[in-house]
Amino acid sequence: MTSLATTIAADFQPSRHSSIPAKVGLALALAALGNWLFYGERIGLSFSLFAIALACVSVSFNHAAFNRRRAVISAAIMVAGLVPAIEELNTLSFLILVAALLVALLIATNPETTGLADRLRALRNFVLFGPFRFFLEALQIFSMSAFTRGIALWLLPAALGTVFVALFAAANPVIEQWVSLLNPKVILDYVSIPRVLFWSMMLALVWPFIHVRWRRRKVVTTDVDNAHVPPPLPSLVPAEFLGPSTILRSLILFNLLFAAQSVLDGLYLWGHVALPANMTYAAYAHRGAYPLIATTLLAAAFVLVAMRPGGPAEKSTVIRPLVYLWVGQNVLLVASSILRLDLYVDIYMLTYWRIAAFIWMGLVALGLILIVARIVLSRSNRWLVGANLLALTVVLYSCSLVNFDAFIADYNVAHSREISGKGMPIDTRYLAQLGPQALPAIERMMQIRTDSALVGCHDRLIETQRLDMAWRAWGFRSWRLQRRLEAEARGQASSQPAG
Questions:
Q1: CA angle centred on 402, ends 396 and 403, rounded to 5°
Q2: Where are the alpha helices (DSSP H) in 378-451?
Q3: Taking the CB of residue 248, how many other CB atoms lie within 10 A of it?
Q4: Close Cβ partners of 302 (under 8 Å, ≥ 6 residues apart)
C-alpha cells in the first residue's frame, strides 16, 4: 500500500489536474447508472449495457494511448466477452465479461506489457489495488487544496467531538434530551445506508477504468553522477491534521464538552439536584458507566498520540496545561462511572463482571495518572507500557488471593430485599453458581426464609464442599471454610436449650 500511495502522489501533480473534475463527474454518472440498473433489480442484460458504457467512458479518457492495431484487438476481445453475457448472464459469462473488459483495457492502454507474465502481473495489481485508488486519490486531491488545509485544523476536533457527544448522550439522559432537540434522525430518514455503500462500491470499481494508471517498469541505472533524487512527494494527509494548532483546538473543545458532562454529574449525581421533568434519578444514575469508560479510553488514546515523545505539542506551554486539565476531567469521569456502577450494584446486586468493571475502572484511572507522569517526567511510551503492565500484574496477583465467591454472596445476601428491605430478591440460582464459599451467606439467609430452592441449594453445596475436602481436591480456602462451618455448627448446637 505504501508504493500505491507513492504512485498516487506522484501522479497527482498540478499539471495533471485538468481532467480530474470531468473524470469525477463521469464516475458519478456511471455510479448513478449502476444504481439505476442494479440496485434492487434482477441483473441480466443490464450488466452488458453497463460494461459497454464503462468501456466507452474509458476510451474517451484514454484514447491518447491507443493505436489502430491495439484498438481493433481490444474491441474484438470486448465483443467476444459480451456475447456469452448477452446470451445469458451466469457466473461463467459474468467472469468472462469481466476478464474481457480487463484484458481489452490492458492491451489498449498499456503497450509496455508484452509478455504473458508482465500482463498477468499488471492485471493482478489492477484487481488488487484498483478498488482502493478512488478513495486514496480523492483524499490526495482534497489535501492539496489550501481551503481543505484550513478545514483539516478542525476536522479532527469536530470528528472526535461528535464521538464524545454521542458517548455522553448514551451515558447521560439529560444530554440525550439536548441532542434529541437537534433531531438528527430527520436526516437519516432520507439517507439509505445500503445505497450509500452501493454508490461507494460503484465509484471504487469504475474509477480505475476512467483514470487508468498501470505500474511502470523500474529502470535500473548505474550512472551515479546523473542520478537525481526525486523531490519529496506531497503527503496524503495534511500536516495540519495532527499539528499543534489542531491539538490546541481539540483540547479546548474537548475540555468544554467534558466540563459540561462533569457539571451535570456534579449537579445530579453527586449533588442530588432535582432532575428535569419526566426523568427519574434512577434513570440518570443507572445509565452510562460503560460508555463513559469508553469515552475515557478514547481520550487517553488521543493524549498519547497528541503528546507523543518528540512531537510538536509535547513542549508547548499552552497545550500541556490543557492536557493536564483534560486528564483531570477524565479521572473525574471515571469516578462518576464508579459511582454509577455502585448505585447500579446497590439495586441489582453484585456479580463477577461488575467486580471486574470496578477493577477495570480503577486501572483506567491509574493509567490516566501514569500518562500525566510520563509527560511530566519526559518518559517514553515504553516506560508507560511497563508501568501499566506492572500495575496490572500487581492487581491480578492480588485478585488471585481474594475470596470473591464469599464476598459476592455476603454482599448480595446483606443487600437483598429479604434482609435490607430494598433492592432485588436474592437470586438463589446465582448463589449456587458461586460454589461452597457461598454457604455461610446461604445459611444466614435460611434464618430468614427456608423455601425448597434455598434448602436444595444448601444441600448441593454441602455435598460439593465434602468432595472438595478430599486430599486430591484440597485447598487452603476450602479448609478454612470447613473450619468455619464446623465452628458455626457447634455454636448453634450449644445455643440450643438442652432436652
A1: 135
A2: 381-400, 404-414, 417-420, 428-434, 439-446
A3: 18
A4: 160, 250, 254
- Cell numbers given for 258: 467534558
- Is-above-0.70 flag for pTM? no
292 vs 170: CA distance, rounded Å: 9
Q: pLDDT per residue over 391-416, tens digit each?
A: 999 999 998 899 999 999 999 998 88
Judge whether 268 and 343 are in contact, CB under 8 Å: no
Amino acid 277: pLDDT: 65
* Burial classification of residue 276, based on how many CB atoms lie within 10 Å of its CB (0-12 exposed, 13-18 middle, 19 or more buried): exposed
Selection from 358, 327, 336, 332 nearest residue 345 by Cα: 358
Side-chain half-sphere of 397: how many Cα atoms within 13 Å?
A: 6
State the pLDDT at residue 228: 46
Are 164 and 288 contacting, i.e. CB atoms less than 8 angstroms apart?
Answer: no
| pLDDT one-digit tens code per residue, 97-149 | 888 888 888 887 776 767 777 778 777 777 777 777 777 776 666 555 555 55
Q: Which residues touch 89 (CB under 8 Å, ≥6 apart)?
A: 43, 44, 45, 47, 48
Q: Which residues of the chain have pLDDT under 70?
A: 1-18, 63-66, 111, 113, 138-153, 181-191, 214-242, 274-290, 311-314, 495-499
Q: In 63-90, where does DSSP find H-type helix? A: 68-87
Is 397 within 8 Å of 376 (Cβ atoms)?
no
DSSP string over 206-219: HHHHHS---PPPPP
Which sequence spans correspond to the domains of the chain? Answer: 2-145+193-210, 243-402, 406-485
Per the CB < 8 A criterion, the answer to whether 268 and 281 are in contact is yes
Task: Give the chain's largest Cα–Cα span.
Answer: 119
What 3-state class would DSSP assign to 365?
helix
List all residues 6 or more positions away from 485 whose beta carbon is below 8 Å from its beta carbon. 439, 440, 465
Give 3-state DSSP helix, strand, coil % of the chain, rounded to 5.
75, 0, 25
- Which cell numbers in the block locate residue 23? 473524470
